[in-house]
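Quick one, tokens below. Sequence please?
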């Protein structure tokens, strides 16, 4: 082994072993014990590199085969001040952001153009971010639909969106072909009315679409028994509305079947709470205008993809009765006094010119999304009520319980009264008879 000087003492052990191997191989080639191309093959280098190393060894000796990169600072090395700034930004301001979201903020807000991989590894090395678990078994994704409007995903995510003890549902409508978000709103609970409001808004903004993909919640489908297929003959209010518009409903029978929607919600849960906190938004009334006016467009700019084919499957909306279609329908029969019972209210119908009376007719009470009511008979609208609690039925006074003893006395007095009546009648008849 060659003698070590002060420069070699700082040389890594692995690099030193590599240099000694190269030195031994070159010496064997110089001693004619192997050819130079065989030496190059043993070292895993080209003939040109072997000639260069031979020239350096003949000139500098053992130092000529040592790796000259060892001990030099990389020109791509990140300054310590930048590293401290990145770590302090994550600790103080972006502590609840995921790495991808934080990397975007570094570029857009702070002008730090470091790579995503470097940022992730630096945060993991500092103990600020946990390493991701190993992936599971290999799965194949379902191909996207080729055109926008062919298939839409509608789902809700129950989450603590304001990072406190309040839970809300985020209803999202997403296109399968492009991942574009058409609707996103926070609501108290995913229900028939909130789902109808989402679908109505999408149809008004984009047009009719071909199919809707959703889970098997009770407001989408009727499932007779858990785990069994849905009953397509029994329609929910949402199913009836989409049937009227000739839109196909596709049920998902597992979370894995809705993988694209589930991954989309993981992105929402990893970004929206942090965006709401950084913008000082703490209520649903503030969050929904922020979503409509700003964040949906920003979300689409990052995650929207190009469709496989040009064009669109959306059809412009030509139905003027969307307000009636996307309402809850209740069938009723008109009473003889031309009133309709709905809950605890009595809805009075006014006379119409095309029929003498509406008594006995089957009508539909439409419970609209804005809380108002209307009554329809075929294509006719008979009445509309903004406040349907005005006319209420009179409350009947409950009957007072009568004791059995009192009832017995009442019966006895009634019998005695009848006996006296008949006795007086017979007496008067006998007196008036001729003798």
């Amino acid at each position: 082994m060659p003698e070590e000087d002060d420069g070699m003492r700082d040389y890594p052990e692995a690099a030193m072993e590599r240099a000694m191997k190269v030195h031994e191989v070159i010496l064997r080639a110089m001693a004619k014990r192997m050819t130079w191309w065989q030496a190059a093959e043993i070292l895993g280098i080209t003939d040109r590199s072997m000639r260069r190393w031979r020239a350096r060894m003949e000139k500098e000796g053992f130092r000529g085969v040592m790796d000259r990169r060892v001990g030099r600072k990389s020109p791509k090395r990140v300054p310590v001040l930048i590293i401290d700034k990145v770590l302090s930004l994550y600790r103080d301001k972006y502590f609840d952001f995921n790495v991808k979201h934080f990397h975007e903020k570094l570029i857009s807000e702070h002008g730090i153009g470091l790579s995503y991989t470097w940022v992730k590894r630096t945060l993991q090395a500092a103990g600020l971010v946990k390493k991701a678990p190993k992936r599971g078994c290999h799965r194949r994704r379902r191909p996207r639909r080729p055109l926008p409007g062919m298939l839409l995903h509608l789902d809700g995510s129950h989450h603590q969106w304001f990072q406190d003890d309040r839970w809300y549902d985020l209803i999202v409508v997403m296109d399968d072909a492009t991942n574009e978000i058409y609707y996103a709103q926070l609501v108290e609970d995913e229900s028939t009315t909130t789902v109808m409001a989402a679908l109505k808004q999408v149809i008004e903004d984009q047009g009719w679409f071909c199919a809707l993909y959703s889970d098997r919640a009770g407001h989408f489908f009727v499932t007779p028994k858990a785990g069994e297929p849905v009953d397509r003959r029994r329609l929910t209010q949402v199913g009836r509305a989409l049937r009227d518009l000739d839109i196909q409903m596709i049920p998902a029978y597992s979370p894995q079947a809705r993988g694209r929607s589930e991954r989309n919600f993981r992105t929402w849960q990893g970004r929206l709470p942090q965006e709401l906190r950084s913008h000082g938004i703490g209520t649903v009334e503030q969050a929904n205008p922020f979503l409509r006016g700003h964040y949906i467009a920003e979300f689409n700019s990052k995650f929207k993809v190009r469709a496989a084919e040009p064009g669109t499957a959306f059809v412009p909306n030509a139905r003027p009765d969307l307000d009636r279609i996307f309402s809850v329908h209740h069938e009723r029969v008109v009473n003889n006094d031309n009133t309709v019972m709905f809950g605890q209210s009595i809805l009075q119908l006014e006379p119409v010119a095309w029929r003498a009376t509406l008594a006995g007719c089957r009508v539909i009470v439409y419970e609209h999304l804005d809380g108002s009511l209307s009554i329809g008979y075929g294509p006719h609208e008979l009445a509309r009520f903004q406040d349907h609690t005005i006319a209420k039925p009179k409350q009947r006074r409950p009957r007072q319980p009568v004791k059995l003893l009192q009832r017995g006395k009442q019966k006895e007095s009634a019998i005695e009264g009848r006996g006296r009546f008949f006795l007086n009648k017979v007496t008067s008849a006998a007196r008036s008879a001729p003798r």
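The longest helix spans residues 404-432. The two ends are 168 Å apart (CA to CA).
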